[in-house]
Amino acid sequence: MLVSLSSILKAARKGRYAVGAFNCLSLEQARGAVAAAVQLRSPLILQVAEVQFPCAPMELIAPVFLRLAVDAPVPVCVHLDHGQSVETCLRAMELGFNSVMFDGAALPFEENVRKTKEVVRAARVCGVDVEAELGRVGDAGTDDEGRQNADIFTDPAQAEAFISATGADALAIAIGNLHGKYIATPKLNIDRLREIAGRIATPLVLHGGSGTSIEDFKACVHNGICKINVATALQIAAAEAVYGGEKTDYIGMKNTIEEATRKAVSWHMDLFESVGKA
Ligand code: 13P
Predict the structure, then answer these.
(1) What is the pLDDT of residues 110-121, one digit of tens each?
(2) Residue ID of nearest Cα to ligand 1 atom 1
(3) In the prediction, which pLDDT does 145 show?
(4) What is residue 151's predicted lDDT score, i.e. its pLDDT?
(5) Whose CA is nearest to atom 9 of ligand 1?
């Protein structure tokens, strides 16, 4: 069933567990994620990020996510991950996403507050929930400083001010986490997480789940993180399974399938003499 982010995360915060938010770029990934949720009787968040639209346009993937959610016997939320503009968030709401993230983390604080508020205002009208981000979650491929540099970690006092100003339903925080494939296992700042969780009741979100140590995952789950985003680990698992562990490039694999299909369909169309008849 399609269930709101707020109700899934409130239950998680109360029960001291976290719900996985899995970036799915295909029917296969989404069905695999739902199959796991059904088998394990776990709530689930299906999501796609704006940077992933070239590979999985939200107009195409939204109906897949929504149908799977409605049909599932467990709570499933359909979430836009890292919406980069207010407009993208509005478009996602129109398409039926019942939760959106506006990522204003790179903006100055006041602008992040202003734009997040704009998204929250529209979302309230549509019955949609909003995740926001404060502090900087870096990229594992390009960014080394994110791991240790406390200056870019989410500031607990700012987090409190941000939530009271915006009314966001979930907050993504930076505690040394990075997106993508880590070169070395990061060490998350759990003290910082505790400080933030001590100040706000809003469910907290950990981005960059792939490559986190089991110890840090557990510490996050038990100290206020209610939503954990995982993308890269799923892509690596799928590509490794197909290529027998030799390759990890899921998007390359998807593109290869698409191109091979285009060629095979073209060959048949030519043979059937339908070319130029559209
Ligand atoms: P990973 O690719 O590191 O798992 O990050 C996922 C994520 O945070 C999506 O928003």
Answers:
(1) 999 999 999 999
(2) 208
(3) 47
(4) 63
(5) 229
Pocket-forming residues, ligand 1, beta carbon under 6 Å: 23, 49, 81-82, 179-180, 207-210, 229-233
Ligand 1 atom with minimal separation from the 206 CA: 8
Distance from the CA of 82 to the center of ligand 1, in angstroms? Answer: 10
Tell me the CB-side half-sphere exposure of residue 7, using CA atoms within 13 A.
13
Q: What is the CATH number of domain 5-272?
A: 3.20.20.70
What tokens were used for 80?
Answer: 């836009």
Q: What is the pLDDT of residues 30-67, one digit of tens each?
A: 999 999 999 999 999 999 999 999 999 999 999 999 99
Element (H, E) at 49: strand 44-49
**What is the CA(269)–ligand 1 centre distance, in A?**
40
**Domain map of the chain by residue range?**
5-272
Residue numbers annotated as active site: 81
Which residues 6+ apart lie within 8 Å of 76 measured at CB?
A: 1, 2, 3, 34, 37, 43, 44, 45, 46, 68, 69
Q: Which of ligand 1's atoms lies nearest the C-alpha of 233?
A: 4
d(CA 177, CA 207): 7
| 179 confidence band (pLDDT: 50, 70, 90) | confident
